[in-house]
């Protein structure tokens, strides 16, 4: 794999931003059983919180009313989480391990799962509960509406019932741009709203020896921001949604299997 030849340490970036386009992840699902099995398992955990099965919405035909549900955060958020965790499982099956992780907004919970803060069951419960709460809000939402404040308060009460652990690998916050520690036990940490500090987080990770960046999610949004955040260094940056074939390719690789 190309990533094996890169110098320095590796960070996984769990991006947020726009919801996945209908069909995002279809190529990975068709090519890799590890990804397909992981995605099916995650969707099965999230389906009880949603009116329609998540996979049916994620892979609906573009232009249909079902596919349009991805524009609602009640489906877009779970879709991003399911996609990112399945991508993470796929990378692990390829032998790619992060030295640090960063999660931005909707990518926070997937990054927290990857860092060992939450079990998959607890992460899915948090994501599913938030989706159910958001489903009652009109779209588009005002960023500081009283109803949204009520949703976040209820979400915080759900988070208070979970049992987060201290991260077992560096998890850099998009709010503080610092490694996360015992504050993972504070529900307020996960519902805090503040401008994302991506450039500062990247600077910290670079100073800690990160030289390879791998974005998980439906797009390459963070990968495209990296050149403006790094101190004149050439970054080895990949977005799994865009570069999966390059990352997977290697001598003797066959479709549907992990490289040796």
Automatic annotation (TrEMBL):
Keyword terms: Multifunctional enzyme, Transferase
Keyword Transferase in annotation: yes
InterPro entries: Ac_transferase_dom_sf, Acyl_transferase_dom, Acyl_Trfase/lysoPLipase, PKS_NRPS_Biosynth_Enz
One GO biological process term: fatty acid biosynthetic process
All residue ranges annotated as the Malonyl-CoA:ACP transacylase (MAT) domain in the record: 13-244
MF (Gene Ontology): fatty acid synthase activity
Top-level taxon of the source organism: Bacteria
Family annotation (Pfam families): Acyl_transf_1
Name recorded for this polypeptide: Malonyl-CoA:ACP transacylase (MAT) domain-containing protein
Organism, scientific name: Streptomyces roseochromogenus subsp. oscitans DS 12.976
Lineage, top ranks: Bacteria, Bacillati, Actinomycetota, Actinomycetes, Kitasatosporales
């Amino acid at each position: 794999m190309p990533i094996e030849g890169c110098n320095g340490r590796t960070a996984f970036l769990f991006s947020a931003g726009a919801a996945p386009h209908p069909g995002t992840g279809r190529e990975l699902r068709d090519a890799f059983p590890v990804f397909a099995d992981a995605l099916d398992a995650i969707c099965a955990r999230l389906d009880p919180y949603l009116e329609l099965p998540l996979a049916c919405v994620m892979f609906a035909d573009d232009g249909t009313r079902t596919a349009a549900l991805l524009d609602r955060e009640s489906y877009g958020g779970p879709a991003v989480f399911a996609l990112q965790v399945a991508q993470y499982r796929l990378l692990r099956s390829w032998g790619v391990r992060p030295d640090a992780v960063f999660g931005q907004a909707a990518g926070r919970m997937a990054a927290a799962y990857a860092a060992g803060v939450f079990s998959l069951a607890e992460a899915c419960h948090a994501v599913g509960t938030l989706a159910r709460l958001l489903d009652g809000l009109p779209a588009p939402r005002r960023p500081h509406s009283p109803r949204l404040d009520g949703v976040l308060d209820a979400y915080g009460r759900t988070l208070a019932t979970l049992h987060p652990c201290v991260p077992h690998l560096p998890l850099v916050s998009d709010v503080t741009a610092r490694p996360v520690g015992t504050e993972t036990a504070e529900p307020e940490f996960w519902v805090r709203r503040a401008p994302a500090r991506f450039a500062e987080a990247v600077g910290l990770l670079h100073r800690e020896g990160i030289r390879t960046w791998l974005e998980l999610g439906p797009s390459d949004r963070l990968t495209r921001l990296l050149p403006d955040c790094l101190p004149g260094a050439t970054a080895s940056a990949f977005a799994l949604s865009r570069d999966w074939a390059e990352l997977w390719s290697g001598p003797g690789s066959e479709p549907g299997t992990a490289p040796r």
